[in-house]
Specification:
single chain, alpha/beta, Purple Acid Phosphatase, chain A, domain 2, five-stranded mixed sheet, 7 helices, 12 strands, 30% helix, 23% strand, binds fe (ii) ion
Length: 243
């Protein structure tokens, strides 16, 4: 199973300098994926949140229209900047699917989890969601499990995002290891990061909008767009494209 993971597009609904930059970056990534579709050889796309910066409906129209251009199945989940109601209603309007419960092959099952704590930048996964995760993992029939969420679980060394990572990360990580989840993919940190913890590969996908300068405490970005191809087989292999 080969998955394109896109994250942190941060589209805007009004006009402005960043609106144009973030739109152009996303447009460039969409064109790159279309132009290299055979080489990338992906089965589908998962977008791990912060699709919009302001949560406005026009930004979601932009997102769904460009995703439709790619012509691959795609799934998405919200980030802390998204407005879940607008994202959901826009998804329905565009006939998009956020639910990954039917995404699997002979060896792998894909599960997503909502890490949003309303009106906060940090993430938190509720006990109810953790119970749902446990249920989904136990229903995986012994297949390997890949889990996607918005917030990162391990500090990436950049205070501006580590200050608002997943709050109950150690509980979530402990549960994931107990459930034998093999891959945990997130976004949110606007950087590339990977760490193997016991049998799980924890991976942070770079952002489409721009990356945070490593180690920064203040707004300070590196101007590029990145995405990951997550290749799930007997082994897990991540290809990162920075364009
Ligand atoms: Fe975020």
């Amino acid at each position: 199973m080969r998955i394109i993971q896109l994250s942190d597009i941060h589209l805007f609904s009004d006009e402005g300098e960043l609106t144009t930059i973030h739109f152009n970056n996303f447009n460039r990534v969409v064109d790159f994926i279309i132009d290299n579709k055979h080489a990338l050889n992906a089965d589908f796309i998962i977008v791990t949140g912060d699709i919009s910066h302001d949560g406005g409906l026009p930004s979601y129209d932009v997102f769904f229209n460009l995703m439709a251009k790619i012509g691959l199945p795609f799934y998405y989940l919200p980030g802390n900047h998204d407005n879940s109601i607008n994202l959901c209603s826009s998804g329905v309007k565009h006939g998009a699917v956020s639910d990954t419960s039917l995404v699997y092959d002979e060896d792998w099952v894909v599960i997503t989890i909502d890490s949003i704590f309303e009106n906060e930048d940090f993430g938190f996964i509720s006990n109810n969601s953790l119970r749902d995760l446990e249920h989904a993992a136990n229903s995986a029939g012994g297949k390997n499990i890949a889990l996607f969420m918005h917030h990162h679980l391990i500090p990436v060394g950049t205070p501006i995002v580590d200050d608002c990572m997943l709050r109950n990360a150690s509980d979530v990580l402990e549960l994931c290891l107990r459930l034998n989840i093999k891959f945990i993919g997130s976004g949110h940190a606007h950087t590339l990061f990977q760490r193997k913890i016991e049998s799980a590969l924890v991976s942070v996908c770079p952002a489409i909008c721009s990356q945070w300068l490593n180690g920064t405490k203040e707004v300070n970005v590196v101007k590029n767009s990145g995405f990951n191809i997550v290749s799930l087989d007997d082994n897990i292999h991540i290809e990162t494209w920075l364009i």
